[in-house]
Design goal:
The chain has 14 helices and eleven strands. The protein has helices at 30-45, 68-71, 74-95, 121-132, 179-199, 207-220, 235-255, 259-271, 278-287, 292-297, 330-344, 346-354, 360-377, 380-401, and strands at 19-20, 102-106, 112-114, 117-119, 135-144, 161-169, 176-178, 224-226, 276-277, 301-304, 307-310.
Length: 416
């Protein structure tokens, strides 16, 4: 049987198994949306369910979302959400069975980038309530829950997955550590989890959310992480540090790429597909131990009249053959693969991927890196190209692995 009750004050049972999908901060105003249907249901069913349909519109005051217009401003709305979520999670933690973890679904996208890093008020506020309730986050299950092509997905890089946080009650007597110790442990532990997430083909749009679980597992393992002033570190600061380590991890792929591609990543991050000064390009190229002329020869950039720009995908040679490319780069391989996928479909992209087996890891790593750049810059359309490549990667890789590579297309290893 089902029972409806306020999560913050419910006493339905003790020793329960908890699986909950709480409100996503300010993402969706369900009560407001429900009014569209409620007025018609009330017309036809008020005589059947008089108590349930007694109000003119859907009750909204107790809905646990951070709606500024209901509470007189953003700060008051955030306080309402944190207080209410804290009560709800504390109530669940008290009545949760010890033998089983709680599963909490959350799909709020991190979107705020500051000088300190990337974080979101929605995630920070929600996770602070989780920590305050006495839970420790043991891990993350990214679950593909969102339908492609839904209204929310149009014109934006919306999440494809929900993140299921696996939580248990924090052990009594957990120690405290310093900020520097936390960062050191985070850098030691998080990369292994990120590698597993990439191996599971988590889409770039979902990676920051997916990384929260193992990162917060480290943070919540301790009674407190103490800043330099001996004050407990906030969840918001912990999220910023987690995202910094994520950036470091994704950036490490650049060191494994050829110099031309590393130049392209830095130039793209600065100018996108717009033009920059030749002098700036030459200085950057020298730092990579290459030249602007050489990078142009590789087919990555166009250099003319004192200006340099990245060549767009639609300008690339449509008959490009990696086996005949005398200066093969991960950058061009990635862009050509995306072009083949978008214009000719997965079969054509798989055939192209099969022709360059030594670049598979580099291509996928670059796609993650470039998506991160696009997300920060607000280049949604360009970001979807890289996200789409990684999302399709399992199928592309499986098809490519079954395609015999003709002798004419076999290539020597790019790096020795």
């Amino acid at each position: 049987y089902a029972t409806q009750s306020d999560a913050g004050s419910q006493e339905i049972s003790s020793g329960k198994v908890v699986s909950t999908d709480p409100p996503y901060y300010d993402n969706v105003g369900y009560a407001d949306l429900s009014d569209f249907f409620y007025v018609w249901l009330r017309r036809s069913l008020r005589n059947v369910f008089p108590d349930l349909l007694s109000t003119m519109t859907v009750p909204k005051a107790e809905e646990l979302i951070a709606a500024p217009y209901r509470h007189g401003g953003k700060e008051a709305a955030e306080e309402f959400f944190l207080c209410g979520m804290g009560k709800a999670l504390s109530s669940l933690a008290k009545s949760q069975v010890h033998e089983w973890p709680a599963a909490i679904y959350y799909a709020f996208k991190q979107s705020e980038t500051t000088s300190a890093g990337t974080v979101s008020t929605g995630w920070a506020t929600f996770l602070q309530a989780v920590v305050d309730a006495g839970w420790t986050v043991e891990g993350t299950w990214p679950v593909r829950t969102e339908r492609e092509g839904r209204s929310r997905d149009i014109g934006s890089n919306a999440l494809a997955s929900s993140v299921v946080l696996i939580c248990r009650k924090r052990q009594q007597g957990a120690p405290s550590i310093t900020r520097s110790q936390f960062v050191r442990i985070l850098r030691a532990e998080l990369p292994a989890s990120l590698t597993r997430l990439q191996a599971a083909h988590i889409a770039p749009v979902d990676m920051p959310q997916s990384a929260i679980g193992p990162g917060m597992a480290t943070f919540t393992r301790y009674r407190a992480v103490l800043d330099a002033d001996d004050r407990p570190m906030t969840v918001r600061t912990a999220l910023e540090l987690i995202n910094q380590v994520l950036d470091e991890y994704l950036g490490e792929h650049e060191g494994e790429m050829d110099a031309d591609s590393r130049f392209a990543v830095t130039w793209f991050e600065t100018f996108g597909y717009e033009s920059g000064q030749f002098g700036e390009a030459e200085n950057l190229a020298k730092a990579r131990n290459v030249s602007v002329a050489g990078i142009a020869e590789a087919g990555i950039i166009s250099s003319a009249a004192g200006k340099v720009r990245i060549i767009r995908r639609d300008e690339l040679n449509p008959t490009w053959n990696p086996a005949k490319d005398s200066r093969l780069t991960v950058w061009e391989a990635t862009q050509q693969l995306i072009r083949a996928q978008q214009e000719q479909g997965e079969d054509a992209a798989s055939r192209l991927l099969a022709a360059m087996p030594n670049l598979w890891d580099g291509i996928r790593g670059l796609a993650y890196r470039l998506y991160t750049v696009c997300e920060r810059k607000g280049w949604a359309e360009e970001g979807r190209a890289y996200n789409g490549l990684v999302a399709a990667w399992p199928d592309l890789e499986a098809k490519a692995a079954q395609i015999p590579v003709p002798t004419s297309m076999q290539q020597e290893p790019l790096f020795r």
